[in-house]
Design a protein that fits this description.
The chain is α/β, with parallel strands linked by helices. The chain folds into three domains: 114 residues, Rossmann fold (3-Layer(aba) Sandwich); 117 residues, Rossmann fold (3-Layer(aba) Sandwich), CATH 3.40.50; 77 residues, 3-Layer(aba) Sandwich (Rossmann fold). The protein contains 15 helices and 15 strands. It has a six-stranded mixed beta sheet, with helices on both faces. It has a four-stranded parallel beta sheet with strand order 13-12-14-15. Strands 1-4-5 form a three-stranded parallel beta sheet, with helices on both faces. The structure holds 1,3-dihydroxyacetonephosphate and iron/sulfur cluster (SF4). The site of 1,3-dihydroxyacetonephosphate has 12 residues, from α3.
């Protein structure tokens, strides 16, 4: 029996006690074994509705932490490889978040609302909730930031600079209303303003930083009639020149709904592009560049099998439970507030 057959057999045995969510960036073999897939917003909301005792998260740590915060005390979130982190999430820690909020408060008379990207640690989400802010994902950053701006609050956006600046453009903010906050807490102003609206932390995702304007030019030279679709973690120049930008779910849906023979160049994680190219053979789908998220790729059919085997052993009292994501209850309170605030704003 090969590993895929062994996973299927264990899944049948464990039944509804186990559910397997997978992010769009997971490899095709994992996606085929998952119970549901999605972008980071959908996965958070779907996990919060599941009642299964074990949630085996095929994604990276911040996603599994989100599920831990949004699910019940009796539910256990397992990450098949605990080293599958997100370097972008590590661009800001709890201390830097606290310090940045303190310094910004001295810089503007407006009340500050922290908006932290889902790609952040639960500790950072905890501070966000404490300061009455909200989490956002790439699918709703515009709505969340606008929610606070329309209350007359200035927003501190962290940790992804690109998502922050691309959201600012979508909201038609002026250059002098935007301030970049560097990691040494120096502020870069495009222009002087009495009432800056958006302070953006200087973090980035190296997988999306790799795309360059020469990649865009090369695609345009090869495919005169092709369209470019990118994730908003890409640099602003790339997002500005693209035909469409959005979350992984938006990229998937846009391509799925496009006419046969459409030509797409996709600026995001390579395994995802590779999968949709296979799924829609009637369209030409090429990556802007082969940029792999090594952390997402740490989840494999081998460690997924080991995880399910371990759960089965644990249920039968033969082993300790391995690779569980645990966040203490006290810290969860404010992290949950910030995640629930996002869901409340999005779902209305
Ligand atoms: P999505 O929320 O669009 O799925 O993005 C998550 C991510 O990590 C992108 O790099
Ligand atoms: Fe994090 Fe970038 Fe990987 Fe997304 S692609 S999980 S932001 S490192």
């Amino acid at each position: 029996m090969n590993v895929i057959e062994k996973i299927k057999k264990l899944k049948t045995k464990l039944g509804s006690r186990v559910v397997i969510p997978a992010h769009h960036y997971q490899t095709s073999d994992i996606v085929a074994l998952a119970d549901f897939i999605g972008d980071s917003y959908k996965l958070a909301v779907d996990c919060s509705k599941k009642k299964s005792e074990f949630i085996v998260f095929c994604g990276v740590r911040f996603m599994a932490e989100g599920a831990e915060v949004l699910t019940g005390k009796n539910q256990k979130i397992i990450l098949p490889d605990l080293s599958a982190g997100c370097p972008l999430a590590d661009h800001i820690n709890k201390r830097q978040m606290d310090e940045a909020l303190n310094r910004i408060a001295k810089f503007t008379k407006n009340k500050i609302a922290p908006v932290v990207y889902m790609n952040s640690t639960s500790e950072v989400k905890e501070i966000c909730g404490k300061f009455d802010g909200s989490v956002c994902t790439s699918s709703n950053a515009k709505k969340i930031v606008n929610y606070f701006l329309s209350q007359g609050r200035s927003v501190f956006f962290a940790p992804d600079y690109n998502l922050g600046i691309n959201t600012a453009h979508e909201l038609d903010l002026l250059q002098n209303e935007i301030i970049k906050v560097k990691k040494d807490f120096t502020f870069t102003m495009m222009d002087q303003s009495d009432s800056p609206k958006l302070f953006i932390w200087d973090g980035n995702c190296r997988v999306h930083k790799r795309f360059t304007m020469s990649d865009v030019e090369e695609f345009k030279r090869t495919y005169k009639k092709g369209k470019i679709i990118v994730h908003p973690e890409c640099d602003e120049a790339i997002v500005n020149i693209a035909d469409v930008s959005g979350s992984t779910a938006k990229i998937y849906t846009e391509i799925k709904n496009s006419p046969p023979d459409s030509i797409w160049c996709v600026g995001t994680e390579f395994h995802f592009v590779e999968r949709i190219a296979k799924e829609f053979p009637d369209k030409t789908i090429v990556p802007l560049r082969n940029s792999i998220c090594q952390n997402m790729a740490k989840i494999t059919v081998e460690n997924l099998y080991e995880t399910l085997y371990n759960i089965d052993q644990f249920i039968n009292g033969k082993s300790e439970l391995k690779n569980q994501i645990k966040i203490d209850e006290v810290s969860q309170v404010n992290a949950r507030r910030s995640l629930k605030k996002m869901i409340e704003i999005v779902e209305g």
